[in-house]
């Protein structure tokens, strides 16, 4: 069983060695973020304030240094995961975040903020697990986990059909519908070398000088539904 650096400690994964490895964070207390109090202002520094319910279906565009890709989310696949992702995107959590773990033929992982102050407050903002309703096929977007009920902000995109992850509790909530070729081009030269504990503690101050070729997310935004074009009524004919 392969070991790797987690967000805080060196710990053993619950998965076999790469390429069958998808854990991202160390086990943490199974305490979810407390509900926001009345009047709380939504803020990345207050996870409990970001509890909006996601639409049944929505899309999000990621603009990255490798190009753009679009994710389509289906809330019924994994409601809690979809809600957390929706809130993170809306509040700009992923801006300047790095694709810090790239395992060709397996997964690409991201979801640690460029600001260590933000990482600190989200570290224990866990959500409960969703039942796995969809398979971890190529292009599916999934929250990383270190065991039951430990999802926070880290995600991965499946490069391949990783159905073996289905029985391990990894619940896809969306999939890439545009730009999977961009995802395939994300720089893989650093592999799993960026240390997640140092990203958590130092943010981009650790990433940029040590991994200058790493690909980053410039921006992520929820795409509003297209408004139907107004069509003028046809003139009556006689």
What does this structure look like?
With 238 residues, the chain is of the alpha+beta class. The longest helix is centred in the middle third of the chain and has 12 residues. The chain is globular, with a radius of gyration of 19 Å. The N and C termini lie far apart (80 Å). The strands form 2 sheets. The protein has an 8-stranded antiparallel beta sheet. It has a two-stranded antiparallel ribbon with strand order 1-2. It contains 5 helices and 10 strands. Strand 3 and strand 4 form a beta hairpin.
Estimate the strand proportion.
15-25%
Rounded mean pLDDT score:
84
Put simply, the count of helices is 5
The low-pLDDT segments are 1-39, 227-238
What best-fitting shape do the alpha-carbon axes yield?
Answer: globular
Share in helix: 10-25%
Structural class: alpha+beta
This entry's quaternary arrangement is single chain
The main sheet comes to: 8 strands, antiparallel
Strand order of the largest sheet: 5-6-8-7-9-4-3-10
**Would you count the extended β strands for me?**
10
Order of helices and strands: EEEEHEEHEEEHHHE
**What is the terminal separation in angstroms?**
80 Å
Backbone CA Rg: 19 Å
């Amino acid at each position: 069983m392969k070991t790797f650096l987690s967000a805080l400690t060196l710990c053993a994964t619950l998965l076999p060695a790469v390429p069958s490895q998808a854990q991202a964070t160390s086990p943490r207390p199974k305490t979810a973020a407390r509900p926001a109090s009345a009047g709380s202002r939504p803020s990345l520094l207050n996870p409990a304030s970001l509890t909006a319910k996601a639409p049944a279906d929505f899309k999000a565009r990621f603009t990255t240094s490798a190009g753009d890709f679009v994710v389509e989310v289906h809330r019924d696949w994994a409601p809690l995961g979809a809600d957390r992702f929706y809130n993170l995107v809306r509040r700009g959590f992923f801006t300047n975040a790095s694709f810090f773990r790239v395992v060709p033929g397996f997964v690409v992982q991201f979801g640690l903020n460029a600001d260590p102050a933000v990482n600190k407050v989200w570290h224990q903002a866990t959500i409960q697990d969703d039942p796995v309703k969809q398979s971890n096929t190529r292009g599916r977007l999934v929250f990383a986990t270190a065991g039951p009920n430990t999802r926070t902000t880290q995600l991965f995109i499946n490069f391949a059909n990783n159905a073996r992850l289905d029985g391990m509790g990894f619940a896809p909530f969306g999939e890439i519908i545009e730009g999977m070729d961009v995802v395939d081009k994300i720089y893989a030269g650093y592999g799993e070398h960026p240390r997640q504990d140092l990203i958590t503690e130092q943010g981009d101050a650790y990433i940029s000088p040590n991994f200058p070729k790493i690909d980053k997310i410039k921006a992520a935004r929820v795409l509003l539904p297209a408004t139907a074009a107004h069509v003028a009524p046809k003139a009556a004919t006689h």
